[in-house]
Amino acid sequence: MDIEKVNSMDFGEFVDVFGNVIERCPLIAAAVWSQRPFSGLEDLEKHFFAFIDALPPSGQEGILRCHPDLAGRELLRGALTAESLREQSGAGLTSLGAAERLRLAELNAQYRARFGFPFVLAARLRGREAVPRELARRLQCPPAQELRAALAEVKKIGRLRLADLLAGHPAPR
Amino acid sequence: MDIEKVNSMDFGEFVDVFGNVIERCPLIAAAVWSQRPFSGLEDLEKHFFAFIDALPPSGQEGILRCHPDLAGRELLRGALTAESLREQSGAGLTSLGAAERLRLAELNAQYRARFGFPFVLAARLRGREAVPRELARRLQCPPAQELRAALAEVKKIGRLRLADLLAGHPAPR
User: Fold this and answer.
1) From the CA of A25, how many Å to the nearest CA of chain B?
2) I want to staple B96 with a disulfide (CB 3.0 to 4.6 A). Which of A13, A20, B101, B130 is the partner?
3) Contact list, B66 vs chain A (CB under 8 Å)
């Protein structure tokens, strides 16, 4: 899809296509539509990120809370969005052994209890071995630093999803 | 459900329950969770509304763009949220005749083209005869005034949905 096509979309089409660039936050795509026309992928991305950066901390934490756990209850319940399922599957998180899954569930629960939002990681860029290691490391971070780190992951995920949509096919991992 | 129950929820439960108080904006419920504990329905409502009021205009328009048309394509496609379907059905909008549906589709299209967001109305409070009349009237309003009017309807819808959830059953129309 080229940028002219994007710029020609009414808000209904735009939200249908870009509504999950930020996981379960169509509000953000719907707000970004106000900034059209866009000059290209980077410009589009810039507006998504600016919206996130301008939110109060509770809103930024809200974005994180719209994300699923990695290899967590949403995956088990079949309730992941198509994008999340593809990413978790691509990272090997849908085929963990019982011990790995349990270890991750424990770390996820500790993380949620400590920070009040789920552990978010651009899993496509890492792979399954890195996930528990990175989770255990970030569990030790101070909360304000961890909020910034988690939002940086949200942006990495959004960048990959935007690139997929503009390329018209999934980007390489 | 009493307020103690609400205050005992982790963010996953809270977003599951309150995620659609503002249509297709779980981000807002997820942000409001940061403000717990809540003293009651009015306090909870106050935090939802404060979040909306603090957004920049593009974000407020974004909220509106997450709403479906009344008797529009989402209804025809079976893509309404459970709450919207119940409200549109309760207002008689799911059983319009062909001429009424066409008239409304034309007005909705004019409204979307003029304001860049869909016509939002707390339909439960009005009923089917009022919808095209109100739509035709609001089509004539200046855009800044109309944005305020539309957000006031979002809040009416949110208030009714919150009351339903805290009462544990649908509120009377």
Assistant:
1) 6
2) B101
3) 15, 26-27, 30
Report residue B9 as tokens: 């929820």
Taking any CB pair shorter than 8 Å as contact, residues of chain A touching chain B are 10-12, 15, 24-35, 51, 54-59, 61-66, 73, 112, 116-117
Q: What contacts 24+ positions apart, CB below 8 Å, involve A169-172?
A: A170/A86
CA distance A142 to A139: 8
pLDDT per position as a tens digit, A58-115? 999 999 999 999 999 999 999 999 999 999 999 999 999 999 999 999 999 999 999 9
Residue B115 near residue B146 (C-beta atoms within 8 A): yes
How far is B170 from A63, CA to CA, in rounded Å? Answer: 28
Q: Compute the radius of gyration of chain A from its Cα atoms.
A: 16
Residue bearing tokens 């890195």: A130
For A23, the closest chain B residue by CA position comes to: B27
From B6, B63, B67, B160, the catalytic residue: B67
Residue B163 burial (10 A CB sphere; 0-12, 13-18, 19+) = middle
Note the pLDDT tens digit of each residue in A34-67. Answer: 999 999 999 999 999 999 999 999 999 999 999 9
Is B151 in contact with B60 (CB distance < 8 Å)? yes
Cis link prior to B37 (omega < 30° from 0)?
yes
CB contact under 8 A, A34 and B62: yes
Sketch out chain B's domains with CATH numbers. Answer: 3-167 (1.10.3330.10)
Q: Is B47 a catalytic residue?
A: no
